[in-house]
Specification:
4 copies of one chain form a homotetramer. Chain A has 3 helices and 5 strands; from the N terminus they run E-H-H-E-E-E-E-H. Chain A is an alpha+beta fold. Strand 2 of chain A pairs antiparallel with strand 2 of chain C.
Chain lengths: 140, 140, 140, 140
């Protein structure tokens, strides 16, 4: 199992007056990375929404080890660390070269766009992300 | 005619590594101010949308004279500088005390939420904002 | 012990195409609330920074129970749930009336602006926030 | 003269509840594009700042013709439409395929990081962007 890797360039607007990336922006980096994870397997989140499935963030947590700076080219490495019936957890780390800057995870629940109710993860999603599932959870 | 005045506190996330408010954020300040302008007259933009009317930004321009800093308590003064059949222009200045930091204007067009077509400004909107119309345009 | 309470109005820019507040923005709401918590006791975070003390976010976690919508007037209730030598944890809940929408906590570490090193929380900070410390931690 | 072209993928966080890109975010797209314009010629804005030169946005204007949507792959085409002694104007259009969505321009002034004073554009900057200067201004 290989983590999915995606590169993100820090923009000026991402920084704050400490001269580092404002902490909330890492959630945007995670969102971009999971979108690209799906796309890498031929699935767009846009198509998923069009098919009536929303993925809502229900939990997230982040640890900030070292700051990222303007114009850094960051690598976000992500695995699917839990794959449930109606939800999944994606664990990510943000790196600058060999240095680990931020680690975190985001739990997403599948929700019907029409009724707003929790629904099973659609097969096209589980198929797309299966190869990024961490071993201990691949049977879960 | 008195301009509408609204106070906005600069947050940490609004700043960038120059130690000033990132320029794009003034458009958010203008958006907040025009929402509060309507609310001051008993109209919420939310209700307008629920009634099927969207106000889309079709043009904006800003001049940046002096930077605003973290935790500044800014005053946004706004007037309706043009009131057309299907659009309006709101001109604003952002002040810190007597100092004028940013000036700008935003043109908004009324659009039907259903068909996405330009529609006349609804009477409840023009009534609400009439008192903030700059003299030269009050008859326009 | 009373939690600190602060009201925040959801702006248009805070929403995403699901029609709800984009999840990352709650971290901004928390930032605004802790700034106002300090200010309520006569301490500005700006003054703290000017005195050479940065408060860096080292950890955060959030649970999203129900979505907030555009123009909602939210209440953020916060307590200091841990007060250490060089760090503190602020636990918050975001409410809309009686409904609890989001809960979360943010851990902040005091860092010297000059050397970038962890330093003890300055007395003016611990004094300012002491009254918002949750009972079980007031002696910690 | 060829305009500089840069592609930008619309993120979920860029959208608002109208289901389109929130207007303020185009200023971020412009910022990203001009950074990449410089980088394409071997100059990083980061290096420019390290050398003591800030480029401050002093004016901007945008026209919104058609909305962009989540996950759209946009192309931002930019030219240097004015090149002065201490400032420059970059004119851009945001396209989705052949469709022109947004046009705009941003005026930037060179400022000394130390004294905060207007300074001449540094030669490494003018050299880097010269090839993107629109003909009528190349001699200006």
């Amino acid at each position: 199992m290989m983590p999915f890797s995606h590169q993100i360039r820090v923009t000026y607007g991402d920084t704050d007056q400490m001269g580092v990336v404002y902490h909330a922006n890492y959630l945007n980096y995670f969102e971009i990375s999971r979108t690209e994870m799906m796309r890498s397997q031929g699935l767009t989140y846009r198509a998923l929404e069009a098919a009536g499935v929303l993925l809502q963030v229900v939990h997230c947590e982040l640890d900030f080890h070292h700051p990222a700076h303007y114009d850094d080219l960051l690598e976000v490495r992500s695995v699917v660390s839990q794959l449930g019936k109606a939800s999944l957890v994606i664990s990510s780390e943000v790196r600058r070269g060999e240095e680990r800057l931020v680690t975190g995870k985001v739990k997403l629940a599948a929700v019907s766009r029409q009724q707003g109710r929790i629904i099973p993860l659609p097969p096209q999603l589980t198929d797309a992300i299966r190869q990024f599932c961490a071993p201990t959870n691949s049977g879960g």
